[in-house]
């Protein structure tokens, strides 16, 4: 048995990073700013950092991509802007009400709450999520500070990892993510902060974050985690904030290297980017979610060739996505450009489960050991 | 036996072909080549005659059309009018003799011209069902109506009366035609239904009731009580004369000398021009007109065509007129609820050859008209809808040649029928319509007509363009109104509540967002037409506005105004006000009321406002430069007064909501 890794002592900054008890004060400051503009006879407006790929910048200190300095204006001069301003204050009002009543709300509930906001109501959950992110940026708070949270998303962890979770009744339970859970693994709650989960110990030597549930099951059934001292984390497609946050905690607190194992297509590259570099849409909290040292394992464009994997032709959308990635600052490294260009050149994409072409054990016995060996993880 | 010469043999075979016989063999020329078309032609000829008869007698037409199925392929058609009726002795010739009519020789605008139409229908009915046509007609002077059953003797082109009777008819005068013919009824583009609809549009003084075979009754009510004046008959103009006609006119001349005949029997020949013509033709003018033939006659015609003459008079034309075109369109298109009726265009008469003509155009846009299809083109000649051969018609060509994209309609490549929710009406009125064939379905190409048509279409299209550009400005303003009326007050209320302060006065913000003077014209419901113009100063500075109202001059005298205008001009139909100084976000109101039943609508009133530049004015036009108005000092001073400078839209700022890239949208979390 390798020695168990134990968590490094928590620093003060980690404990309180991005966490504020009074989230209401900045929302009211926002209201005051608009009120004062109206009172002064000015057309009310707000300035917000643009969350576009043109406006993300690499932060050397944190090693992640964060929002740049470019600002956009949301002004009541235009109908859309006016409507978004009004919506913002319906939202602020709602947040303040929840605080008074000591309630929380899911993002989906908020979407339905907005039914009562007349023409300011949200037309899709995307709209409400975007506005909440705007508020996070403006107030420098997290949505949890606004008492808003996503639904449980059920991304799971399998492997020898011991954590302590404070459950709904306030009781702290010690859970081993291999021995104390069922076949589905340990389901991550939406809140993975230290007040909810503390990370105890692990025998694992690395984390493998996997795009598809089918592949997680394959690795678990083949005993990959035990044989190779790995923690399996299911990303469930584009990973939720809590999944990314938990991976980052495993990386920083247990010093575990992280590899990302996805399909070989343009969208999977973006999954990796959001884990390693930070997503554009949440660039304002990248330092809190991104794991800069995470590495891309595959399936790479060259894997498709080298392992002669069953593949599909890239669709028009795929090609557009790859071309967009070539102008995405996060992918401007020689390796990534080469990878994207190779995929464009070959015009093929493959799923991770296409490895089953060589039998059910091929991925665990041959592919992963080879790739992890190349990466120096195994 | 000596063989007969070839010439003799041929001569034996030659015999006269009766006109009726000729048409029997050439049905398509008259529009009877298939059962659908035969029915349409029959209805059309009967209704055209009915309308002409009513017009001549100056009666408001009441026309009843009934179509009933009889057996598998036969249809019974009844067309009844309230015209003057036809004398008993004339009935057989009018209905059962081709080329017999009162209008052929008259040089004036009329629907029917050649006197073929209705007899052809009677002929067709007889040929296909062997049943006589039944004509019922009563003239005012007689107590009873004559009922005559008629067939045509196709050999002799003579009517044959089958039976006749006298009946009592409960109306003072009128005519009814009943025919049984092989035909088929169907609604559609070239159907009696469409034909009557078109007829109703250009004859708003007629009441037309159609009963279809399934019992459906379609009624087009009368929307005008003015019977169009009977077009005057005028002497023929030499420019339109051909040799044969000139010869026969001279033979029938009532005057003793050629000169006198030229001056009195032809239009446009002044005494001086008459002498010039005679001189050019080498004639003295003292000749007996009937004696002229051969080469001298030809020289006379050439001279008449070369010596400058007074152009033909256009008195003989009867345009529909802008007002009635609009009313007719509104009557028939009411259900479609178009957004816009362009002011119809009625061009002044022009001359083509020896015949005067004029073009009228009506244009309707929006509402329920289909936006993704070619526009509907309704063609009319002398108030008769043209339903066939759209592609071969000079009207269609004129419409297709125009570049409608410049006027706001889609048109692939800038030619062809434009696409859009529009309906176009084109009416050609003339003493002689140049049809491409006897079937009178399409107008032949003619450079003079083409020129007038283009001018008329352009005028109508310009109205459309103005309408569309106003609408788009209004849409933009609509967005601003939504901001200031619905969003801003709530935003103020929400933020005031959050910071626990009183709701601020929004006037400065509102005027900064709007920055326009807006004139809103509404027409409240009520028996007397009343219009309410609200002029709101949504600019950040006070304004003194000079407001002009222009209306049809005839109505100005009957209008009452509140407040009283500072001046009026009865001749130009204008009234004007110098409104008291309007502070930002305040308004003034002008109410204009007309007597009950005045025919007027909002589009007949035009407002012009001075004291604010065009870019900041909506709902009214800036004062036209050529009006040459001296504005009151207060208006000029207020306009010159430096207002609070507006914070210009900082174009360097990025609109956050427009910039929100979709790029990150898949990075969900």
Biggest β-sheet description of chain B? 8 strands, mixed
Tell me the distance between the termini of chain A.
16 Å
Treating each run of at least 4 consecutive H or I residues as one helix, how many helices of chain A? Answer: 14
How much strand of chain A? 15-25%
CATH topology of the largest domain in chain B: Heat Shock Protein 90
How are the secondary structure elements laid out?
The complex is a heterodimer of chains A (378) and B (669).
Chain A: E1 5-6, H1 12-16, H2 24-39, E2 45-49, E3 56-59, E4 64-67, E5 71-75, H3 79-101, E6 105-106, H4 107-113, H5 125-139, E7 148-149, E8 156-158, E9 161-166, E10 172-176, E11 186-187, E12 197-202, E13 206-210, H6 213-221, H7 224-228, E14 230-234, H8 241-253, E15 258-261, H9 266-276, H10 286-289, E16 295-298, H11 301-306, E17 312-313, H12 316-326, H13 334-346, E18 348-349, H14 362-375
Parallel strand pairs in A: 6-7, 13-14, 13-15, 15-16
Antiparallel strand pairs in A: 1-12, 2-5, 3-4, 8-11, 8-14, 9-10, 9-12, 17-18
Chain B: H1 6-13, H2 19-25, H3 27-30, H4 35-56, E1 62-70, E2 74-81, H5 91-96, H6 117-129, E3 133-138, E4 145-153, E5 158-167, E6 174-182, H7 192-202, E7 207-211, E8 217-220, H8 243-251, H9 258-265, H10 271-281, H11 295-306, H12 322-333, E9 340-341, E10 345-346, E11 350-352, E12 355-365, E13 376-381, E14 384-386, H13 394-401, E15 422-430, H14 447-499, H15 507-514, E16 516-522, E17 530-538, E18 546-550, H16 553-556, E19 560-562, E20 567-569, E21 574-578, E22 586-593, E23 606-610, E24 617-618, E25 621-622, H17 633-640, E26 654-655, H18 656-659
Parallel strand pairs in B: 1-7, 13-15, 16-24, 23-25
Antiparallel strand pairs in B: 1-2, 2-6, 3-4, 3-6, 4-5, 7-8, 9-12, 10-12, 11-12, 12-15, 13-14, 16-17, 17-22, 18-21, 18-23, 19-22, 20-21
Helix pairs in contact in B: 4-6, 7-12, 10-11, 13-14
């Amino acid at each position: 048995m390798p020695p168990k890794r134990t968590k490094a002592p928590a620093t003060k900054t980690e404990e309180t990073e991005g966490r504020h008890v009074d989230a209401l004060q900045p929302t009211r400051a926002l209201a005051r700013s608009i009120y004062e503009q109206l009172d002064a006879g000015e057309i009310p407006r707000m300035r917000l950092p643009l969350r576009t790929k043109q406006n993300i910048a690499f932060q050397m200190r944190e090693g992640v991509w964060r929002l740049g300095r470019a600002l956009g204006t949301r002004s009541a001069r235009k109908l859309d802007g006016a409507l978004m301003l009004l919506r913002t204050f319906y939202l602020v009002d709602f947040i303040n009400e929840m605080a008074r009543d000591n309630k929380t709300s899911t993002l989906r509930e908020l979407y339905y709450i907005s039914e009562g906001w007349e023409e300011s109501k949200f037309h899709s959950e995307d709209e409400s999520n975007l506005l909440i992110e705007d508020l996070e940026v403006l107030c420098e708070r997290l949505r949890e500070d606004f008492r808003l949270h996503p639904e449980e998303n059920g991304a799971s962890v399998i492997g020898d990892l011991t954590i302590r979770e404070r459950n709904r009744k306030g009781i702290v339970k010690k859970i081993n993510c291999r021995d104390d859970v069922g076949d589905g693994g340990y389901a991550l709650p939406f809140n993975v902060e230290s007040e909810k989960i503390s990370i105890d110990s692990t025998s694992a030597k690395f984390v493998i974050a996997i795009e598809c549930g089918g592949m997680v099951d394959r690795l678990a059934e083949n005993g990959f985690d035990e044989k190779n001292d790995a923690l399996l984390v299911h990303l469930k497609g584009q990973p939720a904030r809590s999944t990314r946050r938990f991976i980052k905690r495993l990386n920083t607190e247990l010093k575990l290297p992280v590899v990302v194992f996805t399909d070989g297509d343009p969208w999977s590259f973006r999954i990796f980017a959001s884990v390693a570099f930070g997503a554009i849409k949440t660039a304002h909290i990248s330092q809190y979610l991104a794991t800069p040292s995470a590495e891309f394992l595959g399936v790479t464009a060259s894997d498709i060739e080298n392992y002669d994997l069953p593949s599909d032709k890239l669709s028009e959308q795929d090609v557009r996505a790859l071309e967009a990635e070539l102008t995405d600052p996060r992918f401007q490294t020689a390796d990534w450009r080469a990878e994207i260009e190779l995929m464009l050149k070959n015009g093929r994409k493959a799923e991770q489960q296409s490895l089953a072409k060589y039998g059910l054990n091929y991925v665990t016995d041959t592919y992963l050991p080879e790739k992890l060996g190349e990466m120096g993880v195994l | 036996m000596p063989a007969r010469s070839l010439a003799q043999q041929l001569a034996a075979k030659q015999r006269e072909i009766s006109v009726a016989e000729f048409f029997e063999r050439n049905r398509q020329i008259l529009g009877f080549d298939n059962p659908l078309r035969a029915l349409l032609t029959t209805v059309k000829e009967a209704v055209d005659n009915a309308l002409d008869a009513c017009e001549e007698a100056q009666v408001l037409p009441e026309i009843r059309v009934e179509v009933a199925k009889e057996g598998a392929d036969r249809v019974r058609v009844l067309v009844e009018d309230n015209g003057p009726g036809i004398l008993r002795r004339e009935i057989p010739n009018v209905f059962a003799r081709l080329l017999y009519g009162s209008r052929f020789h008259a040089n004036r605008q009329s629907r029917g011209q050649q006197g073929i139409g209705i007899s052809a229908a009677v002929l067709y009915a007889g040929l296909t069902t062997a049943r006589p046509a039944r004509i019922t007609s009563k003239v005012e002077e007689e107590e009873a109506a004559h009922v005559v059953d008629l067939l045509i003797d196709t050999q002799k082109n003579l009517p044959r009366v089958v039976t006749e009777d006298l009946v009592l008819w409960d109306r003072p005068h009128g005519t009814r035609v009943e025919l049984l013919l092989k035909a088929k009824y169907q609604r559609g583009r070239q159907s009696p239904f469409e034909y009557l609809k078109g007829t109703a549009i250009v004859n708003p003084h007629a009441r037309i009731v159609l009963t279809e075979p399934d019992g459906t009754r379609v009624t087009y009510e009368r929307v005008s009580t003015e019977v169009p004046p009977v077009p005057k008959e005028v002497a023929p103009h030499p420019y339109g004369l051909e040799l044969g006609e000139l010869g026969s006119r001279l033979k029938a001349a009532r005057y003793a000398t050629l000169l006198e005949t030229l001056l009195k029997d032809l239009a446009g020949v002044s005494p001086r021009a008459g002498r010039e013509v005679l001189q050019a033709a080498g004639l003295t003018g003292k000749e007996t007109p009937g004696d002229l033939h051969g080469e001298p006659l030809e020289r006379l015609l050439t001279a008449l065509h070369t010596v400058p003459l007074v152009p033909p008079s256009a008195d003989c034309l009867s345009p529909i007129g802008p007002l009635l075109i609009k009313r007719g369109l509104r009557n028939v298109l009411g259900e479609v609820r178009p957004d816009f009726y362009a002011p119809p265009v009625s061009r002044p008469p022009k001359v083509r050859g020896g015949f005067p003509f004029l073009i009228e155009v009506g244009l309707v846009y929006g509402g329920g008209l289909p936006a993704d299809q070619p526009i509907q083109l309704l063609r009319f000649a002398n108030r008769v809808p043209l339903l066939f051969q759209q592609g071969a018609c000079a009207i269609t060509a004129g419409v297709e040649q125009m570049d409608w994209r410049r006027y706001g309609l889609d048109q692939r490549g800038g030619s062809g029928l434009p696409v859009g929710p529009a309906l176009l009406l084109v009416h050609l009125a003339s003493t002689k319509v140049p049809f491409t064939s006897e079937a009178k379905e399409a107008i032949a190409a003619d450079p003079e007509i083409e020129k007038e048509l283009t001018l008329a279409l352009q005028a109508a299209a310009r109205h459309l363009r103005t309408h569309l550009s106003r609408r788009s400005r209004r849409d933009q303003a609509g967005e601003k109104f939504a901001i200031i009326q619905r969003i801003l007050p709530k935003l103020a209320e929400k933020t005031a509540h959050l910071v626990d302060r009183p709701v601020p006065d929004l006037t400065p913000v509102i005027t900064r967002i709007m920055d326009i003077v807006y004139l809103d014209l509404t027409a409240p419901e009520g028996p007397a037409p009343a219009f309410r113009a609200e002029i709101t100063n949504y600019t950040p500075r006070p304004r003194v506005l000079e407001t002009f109202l222009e209306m049809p001059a005839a109505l100005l005298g009957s209008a009452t105004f509140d407040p009283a205008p500072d001046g009026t001009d009865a001749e130009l139909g204008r009234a004007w006000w110098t409104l008291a100084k309007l502070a930002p976000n305040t308004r003034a109101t002008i109410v204009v009321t007309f007597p009950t039943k005045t025919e007027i609508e909002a589009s007949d009133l035009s407002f012009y406002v001075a004291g604010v530049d065009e870019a900041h004015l909506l709902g009214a036009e800036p004062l036209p430069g050529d009006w040459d108005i001296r504005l009151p000092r207060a208006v000029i001073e207020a306009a010159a007064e430096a207002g609070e400078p507006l914070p210009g839209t900082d174009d360097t700022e990025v609109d956050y909501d427009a910039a929100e890239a979709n790029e990150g949208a898949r990075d969900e979390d």
